[in-house]
Amino acid sequence: MRRSLRTTTIATTPKVFLNHHHVPILIKLLAPEDHHELKAMYLRFTPRAVAGGLPPASTPECLTWVEQLISSGINIVATGFDRTVVGHAVILPMRKLTCEMLIAVEPCQQKSGIGSQLLRSIIQLAYELGFHRMWLSVEKTNFIAIHLYTKFGFERLTFSDSPQLEMALDLRRYRPTAKVKVKYVMNRDVVTINRDASCAAAIEIFLHHNVATLPVITDDRTVIGILSQTDLLFKSHFQQKVSEVATRNVVTLYQECTIQRAIQLFQGKKLRSIPIVDRQKKLVGIVTRQDILAYYYKNHQQFSEL
Fold first, then answer.
1. Domain 5-170 belongs to what topology?
2. What confidence tens digit (pLDDT) does each residue in 138-162 have?
3. Which residues is 118 bridged to in the sheet?
4. Quick check: 273 and 212 in contact, CB under 8 A?
5. b/e code 233-250 from CB counts within 10 Å (16+ = b)
6. Alpha helices by DSSP H, 32-181
7. Is 22 helix (H, G, I), strand (E, B) or coil?
8. Global pTM?
9. Domain definitions of the chain by residue range
10. In whole angstroms, what is the distance from residue 191 CA to residue 179 CA?
């Protein structure tokens, strides 16, 4: 193992996000005070024993099964701010730096983004703990789960007539992404617009430079907002200042942050681009999804050799 559980990202900085219903959810390591709520979540599954026989149908067997996961696995949970557990992911160490992964979201909370956030967090945790491979088994008819796993890089291992599909993820492929800082990927030649410019001037820039968003800056290049083409679709905006229609709660990253953090923001917040700033909040670059894809393509041979 490369590091202790106490020094992992999820242990030192639990993740907070808004689900698709705009409800705040906390993802963190399982704590003793969460055990009761975790068991209660699995007991709320109705019916049980439908996904590969899990969770077990009878209440005593279900409780015993959860206790085994707690004692033998490395667990994270998604909770509401009332401490109700609404999601769970666990990695179970196997052999040769391989771990098995299981993930579950309370039925009434499914399709709200919790599963994706749990999966992203458990993959990062397994990588930080030094595992090389993550294995799972999923029902072939669970197309939503299979699509999610494939999206995160899992590959099919079996093509038999079994109702269960085995999939695996090579965690070593995440090392370059986890380490590379955005300053080596970002575009330093940023097309911007001043906060006092008119929306008509912004439209001209959009049409001339073929960009999707414009960082809105002050005279000293402090980022105070982001302007998208969607912000300018109303004709009444043409004579207004950019600062009056731009999104003010702009998401930025420091240039020392990693590509992995940028990917999390792109996926979690549906962003097109992220302005990169220095410690004084001055604009130094911008990173887009295309920039990351270009980095992947450039280093394709390196990835394929892992």
1. Aminopeptidase (3.40.630)
2. 999 889 899 999 988 899 997 777 8
3. none
4. yes
5. eeeebeeebbbebbeeeb
6. 35-43, 59-72, 114-128, 143-151, 175-179
7. coil
8. 0.68
9. 5-170, 182-294
10. 27
